């Protein structure tokens, strides 16, 4: 639990919810004593503190404010990088999101989930209850979080796999066939499909065009397109971080159009990515020393096609 927390944060403690649900539904005598709950959690907190306290000191509290505040609490009550609903009504409508996407993300095994659920509805033992409770806790937690991505429920997949293994009456030959087909298809998509589709993504296209002019000391910013791929690609060549702005008392990874001229004119080398229409409005004619690269592409997070421009100024 301690190592999981240090690697991924509070989400690593979701299994504790599974244990609590199982204890509520099927109480185990002398539960706390058998599981050494109090001593175990004290040890867990002590191990987390060995790294967490120095991290708080060295970052002047930013580890708590950003690492837990923005990326845990912020994702729970708001959307990040466009992943999720922006209103309460849409958030309520998106509650079944993971119950639908699991049929794609857990494919092809998800085809057997309905029959297994029907079987478990009629008869289940203590181990089935544990596996069901664990999967349900994960689905419920991430369904209530505003920021949604299909892979958030990956921790439930081993539990679903165990349920299938226990209740899917299939021969070894069938299982091997499904496994090899799934592995082959996954490798083909990863090694062939994604490289072929890469030019369609705006971040890749802009990075390739601007690559010869990028300098390690550059800072960069983005407006209306602060996707992780933008950071991953450009941070491989520049040492600066994506510019963060203040909005409603919190940091947001975006710059406003009226801030672009000041940002680029500041001492040093900078570049900014923004919609082409906004770029043309701000710079009908580029100042001396500025360069402009434009492209069209698909933003997966928002499911939209965009026209974007990168404006770069070298010192």
Can you offer a commentary on this structure?
The protein is of the alpha+beta class. The protein is 55% helix and 11% strand. The protein contains 15 helices and six strands. It has a four-stranded mixed sheet with strand order 1-4-6-5. The protein has a two-stranded antiparallel sheet with strand order 2-3. It is globular and about 75 Å long. The two termini are 48 Å apart. The mean pLDDT is 81.
TL;DR of this structure?
The chain has 315 residues and is an alpha+beta fold. 55% of the residues lie in helices and 11% in strands.
How many strands appear in the DSSP assignment?
Answer: 6
Query: Tally the helices: what do you get?
Result: 15
Q: Helical percent range?
A: 40-55%
Computed structural class: alpha+beta
Shape: globular
Output the keywords.
alpha+beta; 315 residues; 15 helices; 55% helix; two-stranded antiparallel ribbon; globular; 6 strands; single chain
Furnish the topology, listing elements before pairings.
Layout: H1 2-8, H2 14-25, H3 31-35, H4 37-58, H5 62-77, H6 88-93, H7 97-105, H8 113-122, H9 126-144, H10 157-167, H11 172-197, H12 202-210, E1 219-222, H13 228-234, E2 245-247, E3 250-252, H14 260-265, E4 270-275, H15 276-282, E5 290-299, E6 304-313
Parallel strand pairs: 1-4
Antiparallel strand pairs: 2-3, 4-6, 5-6
Helix pairs in contact: 1-4, 2-9, 9-10
């Amino acid at each position: 639990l301690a190592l999981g927390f240090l690697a991924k944060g509070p989400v690593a403690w979701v299994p504790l919810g599974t244990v609590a649900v199982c204890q509520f539904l099927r109480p185990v005598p002398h539960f706390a004593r058998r599981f050494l709950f109090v001593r175990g959690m004290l040890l867990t907190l002590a191990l987390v503190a060995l790294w967490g306290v120095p991290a708080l000191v060295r970052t002047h509290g930013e580890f708590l404010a950003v690492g837990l505040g923005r990326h845990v609490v912020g994702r729970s009550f708001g959307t990040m990088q466009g992943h999720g609903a922006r209103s309460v009504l849409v958030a309520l409508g998106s509650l079944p999101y993971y119950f639908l996407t699991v049929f794609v993300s857990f494919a092809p095994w998800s085809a057997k989930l309905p029959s297994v659920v029907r079987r478990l509805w009629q008869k289940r033992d203590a181990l089935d209850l544990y596996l069901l409770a664990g999967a349900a806790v994960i689905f419920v937690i991430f369904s209530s979080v505003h920021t949604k991505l299909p892979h958030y429920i990956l921790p439930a997949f081993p539990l679903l796999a165990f349920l299938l293994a226990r209740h899917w009456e299939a021969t070894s030959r069938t299982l091997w066939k499904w496994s090899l087909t799934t592995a082959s298809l996954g490798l083909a998509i990863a090694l062939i499909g994604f490289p072929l589709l890469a030019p369609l993504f705006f971040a890749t296209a802009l990075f390739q065009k601007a690559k010869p002019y990028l300098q390690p000391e550059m800072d960069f910013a983005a407006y209306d397109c602060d996707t992780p791929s933008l950071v991953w690609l450009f941070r491989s060549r520049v040492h600066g971080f994506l510019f963060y702005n203040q909005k409603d008392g919190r940091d947001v990874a975006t710059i406003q159009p009226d801030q672009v001229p000041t940002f680029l004119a500041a001492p040093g080398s900078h570049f900014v990515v923004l919609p082409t229409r906004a770029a043309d409005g701000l710079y009908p004619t580029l100042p001396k020393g500025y360069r402009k690269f434009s492209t069209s592409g698909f933003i997966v997070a928002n499911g939209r096609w965009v026209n974007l421009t990168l404006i770069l100024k070298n010192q």
